[in-house]
Each structure stands twice: as C-alpha cells, then as structure tokens.
Design brief:
Layout lengths: L26 H14 L4 E4 L4 E7 L7 E7 L7 E5 L2 E10 L4 E3 L5 H12 L3 E8 L4 E6 H8 L6 E3 H7 L1 E2 L10 H9 L3
Parallel strand pairs: 5-7
Antiparallel strand pairs: 1-4, 2-3, 4-5, 6-9, 7-8, 8-10
C-alpha cells in the first residue's frame, strides 16, 4: 500500500465521481488537452483562436506586474478552433450547457452560424461540439445537419433528443478527453 503525504493509504477515488468522471475539467480544457495529444501524436494540428481585443488602458504598479484595466473586442470572433487534419480544414465552435433537455441557440451567435456556413460551403469540415454537463455527454454536430435543422425556421434551441439522433457522441479517455477526430475519421473515411 502506498502512503501518500495526506496520510491516507492507497488510491482514494474522489467522492461523487464515477468511472466516466471528467475530473472537473471544462469542455475547453478537454479540447485543448485533446488538441495537445493530437499534435504530439502527429494526428492533427488544431489550435484555439485568440479573441481579437484592443487594449485601451494598462496599469503598471511595477515593472513586471502590468495589468490590463480596459479593453474592447475589435470585432466579433468567429469560432473557437481551427486547424487541419489529413488535408482537410477543421473549423468548430465548442459550447457547454447545464440544460437537460435542449441547447439554447442564444449561446451561438448569428455571426458564428454564418461563419460555420461559409467555411462549410468552401469545403472545410465545420461542426459544433456541445457538452451536456448534467449527463457528462459530449456531441459533435456537423454543419450540414445543424444548418439544415435551423434553416427557414424560427428555431430557438436544439432539443437534446435531436442532438442524440443527429449528432455523434464523442468518446472520452484519460489521454484523449474529447476525441472528436474519431467521429470525423468515421464519417470522412480517411486512413
């Protein structure tokens, strides 16, 4: 038995965590860790896009402790992530919800939908990743399914049942907490 510094012996599973517990990581952290894994294993190159901001005011209490006190968004950002996999451009947005029955489209801005549509029309693999925190389930929805569902309708949300039927559940593991490439590879059949 291993004696840990806390004085407890052996491995203690955190209370309230199940086998599929994500150890408190957010979707963005999971995707960033997954992207790091893909990069190390030379599977894909995908990065989070920085949000374009204009810094207006900086407080310099000391030389090495500069603090931004005022900044503005330069323009509306598009999607969260962009990269390349086996010659295909990848472009996607990632969102989380605590809702158990639907994903509210108010969380997805019109300029993001327009961007997903534009890159999809130009041949990129565009998609949306949604995590339902209540179920600890993450889904990938390709642009064509998303755009077809919301086209010509006054849709305010994506029902969880529709996401389960039209989306693809993303598997998780310790090393790859959000393996979205597995879904893309199964659909695009790239070796």
């Amino acid at each position: 038995m291993i004696q840990y510094p806390s004085g407890k012996k052996g491995y203690q599973k955190p209370k309230g965590s199940g086998i599929t517990s994500r150890r408190g990581m957010s979707l963005e952290e999971d995707i960033n860790a997954t992207n790091d894994h893909y990069l190390i294993k030379n599977k894909a190159v995908v990065h989070k896009k920085p949000t374009p901001i204009q810094i207006v005011n900086v407080d310099y209490p000391s030389r090495n402790k500069a603090k931004i006190t005022e900044a503005y968004f330069r323009q509306a950002s598009t999607t969260d992530y962009q990269g390349v996999w086996k010659g295909l451009a990848l472009d996607f947005e990632a969102k989380e919800t605590k809702n158990k029955t639907l994903f509210p489209l108010t969380a997805l801005h019109q300029h993001q939908i327009d961007h997903i549509k534009a890159v999809h029309e130009h041949g990129a693999v565009a998609f949306l990743i949604i995590r339902f925190n209540a179920f600890d389930e993450t889904y990938l929805i390709f642009a064509q399914e998303l755009l077809a569902y919301i086209a010509d309708k006054e849709v305010r949300s994506l029902p969880f049942t529709w996401i389960q039927a039209s989306g693809h559940r993303i598997t998780t593991s310790y090393q790859i907490p959000c393996d979205y490439l597995e879904v893309i590879a199964s659909v695009y059949k790239k070796e």
